[in-house]
Amino acid sequence: MGPATRGTPYPDRAGSRRSHPDRTGPRQPHPDRTESRRPLPGRTRRPRPERLRRVRPAGDAGLSLTEVMVSISLMGVMMVIFTTGVLQVYRAVNGVEALSASQSQLQTAFQRLDKEIRYATWISRPSAPIRDNRYVEFAYVEPAERNPQTGQVKLPQAMCGQLRLDLNRGVLQLVRWTPGSPPAEGRPGETLASEIAVADLRTNPPNGTAKAPFVFQPAGSRDLYDGSVPRTAGAGFTPDFHRLELHLTSSVGAGEHVRTSNLDVAFTALNTSRETPAANVCTEGRPQ
């Protein structure tokens, strides 16, 4: 290509004509350059970085120290309210559980003694504290019973029972034996109730407003064998059967969760009468 052809246009691949790259002078824009930069249908033009910088707000859009402190304070108040509610529910649940446990203890003792003492043939006078234990004995007769396997019939048998309240552990136990074979002192018995309040029962009569756990009233008598317990019947009442009163307090829980339940009940021995003798062989089970 000679000098005469320098600066003359030549065809490109698209068939358009543009200036030769070796031409002198300023480069002239193509007449269709603007049209060639239009976006295709369905496509958007990507913004330039400088355009993005113009859209963004100036400065940081954050929180001030005052706003942060107010948010923390509100969160603290909400946490205090929530924690207080949880603690109140926790205390209420613990109190209900403790009350239910204390009532269950005394209910079990009542159900067992209602059967044992109701058919007693003799009841002793309750003892004063003996080596941190209180005792009361009674006699009863086991009914005839047939063995379902062998078919043999067991004849009625006289038995002795003893209620023992352990003042160290707060446990009410039932001890049984055959007359003539008294149990050794301290022999474990059947536990009827536990967690009995015994702090004021170590003296006779008990300290404070506490009642004696066992109170006996013989048939034909208007007096109770314990001056610390008020009469539960009228002044002219005279029982025809021996009566045994139980006054027990069950205390379950500790601190603010402690709950107490009381058992004040009188059992009547239907197999006794005014002719029932005061002495009985079942007194052998009481420690001396």
Averaged pLDDT, please?
A: 78
Helix proportion? 10-25%
In DSSP terms, counting alpha (H) and pi (I) runs of 4 or more, how many helices? Answer: 3
Largest sheet: 5 strands, antiparallel
Order of helices and strands: EEHHHEEEEEEEEEE
β-strand amount: 15-25%
End-to-end Cα distance, whole Å, is 144 Å
What structural class do the secondary elements suggest? alpha+beta
Low-confidence parts, pLDDT < 50 over ≥5 residues?
Answer: none
Radius of gyration: 49 Å
Protein name: Prepilin-type N-terminal cleavage/methylation domain-containing protein
Keywords: Membrane, Transmembrane, Transmembrane helix
Description:
The protein is 23% helix and 23% strand. With 288 residues, it is α+β, with helices and mostly antiparallel strands. It has a domain at 91-226 and 236-283. The chain has a 5-stranded antiparallel beta sheet, with helices on one face. Strands 10-11-12 form a 3-stranded antiparallel beta sheet, covered by helices on one side. It has a two-stranded antiparallel ribbon with strand order 1-2. The longest helix is centred in the N-terminal third of the chain and has 54 residues, at 65-118. The model has no long low-confidence stretch (mean pLDDT 78).
In short:
With 288 residues, this protein is an alpha+beta fold.
How would you summarize the topology of this molecule?
Blueprint: E1 10-11, E2 17-18, H1 33-36, H2 49-55, H3 65-118, E3 122-123, E4 133-142, E5 145-146, E6 153-154, E7 157-166, E8 171-177, E9 190-193, E10 214-217, E11 242-252, E12 259-269
Antiparallel strand pairs: 1-2, 3-4, 4-7, 5-6, 7-8, 8-9, 10-11, 11-12
